[in-house]
Write a structure and sequence with these properties.
6 strands, 6-stranded mixed sheet, 224 residues, 38% helix, alpha/beta
């Protein structure tokens, strides 16, 4: 027998929806030329598609156009899905920065949900808010995500990054991720007969964990 995994309310999703609704109802966002957009990052393609399905039921056409981009999926809630491509979805999300022709006739995308397949090398500064629905264990990746909108040519006087933190004690998550990676590297090396090259030193592991945690704490507590 099967059952609905998300039978109860998804409180994290509801908090995301509430934040976005409040942002869109603000006086600044309600202005005629506001063009407020959200870029929502998540770690997995399954979560990205889940968010897309849930959010498009709450933020509907004609008021809002949504897009979803992962390594294998490019889709929007616009009527014609046959011609959606990776490049087209990103261009329609940030038409000004990507130089889209004004007479292309396509509806701009207001909310884009994506995995880290677009966390590097994309100019998306038409957007003013990045939301990390899944905070990445690596602080560099978090900065790369924010770098999609923190770019020369932005029309916004201020931009922001909103982070969803998994737990008050996220140090344990970072530590576990680091240790698993090191063990995998060691096992791989043993298979090649070169275990000595990647034998994990506990002091080095601790140093790396402490560094990652301190950087994530700075992201959590400070304005970048």
């Amino acid at each position: 027998a099967t059952r609905e995994v998300m039978a109860t309310e998804d409180s994290k999703l509801e908090q995301l929806v509430s934040y976005m609704q409040q942002a869109y109802s603000s006086e600044e966002a309600a202005s005629a030329d506001s063009g407020k957009k959200f870029l929502i990052f998540t770690a997995s393609s399954d979560t990205a598609e889940y968010l897309y399905e849930k959010l498009r039921a709450r933020f509907r056409l004609p008021d809002f156009a949504l897009g979803c981009v992962t390594g294998t999926v490019q889709k929007t809630n616009r009527p014609d899905q046959s011609g959606e491509t990776f490049e087209k979805v990103l261009m329609d999300f940030s038409p000004r920065s990507k130089g889209r022709a004004e007479d292309c006739g396509r509806r701009e995308i207001d909310i884009l949900i994506a995995t880290d397949c677009i966390s590097e090398g994309q100019n998306l500064q038409d957007c003013d808010t990045v939301i990390n629905y899944d905070i990445h264990w690596n602080p560099v990746r978090v900065i790369q995500r924010f770098g999609r909108i923190d770019r020369i040519g932005s029309k916004w006087n201020s931009i922001q990054m909103v982070n969803f933190w998994p737990t008050d004690d996220f140090e344990s998550i970072v530590s576990l991720r680091t240790r698993v990676e090191r063990r995998i590297a060691m096992i791989s090396a043993i298979g090649d007969g070169d275990a000595n090259l990647l034998n994990p030193d506990e002091d080095l592991i601790e140093d790396e964990v402490n560094f990652r945690v301190s950087q994530l704490n700075r992201i959590k507590e400070e304005v970048i």
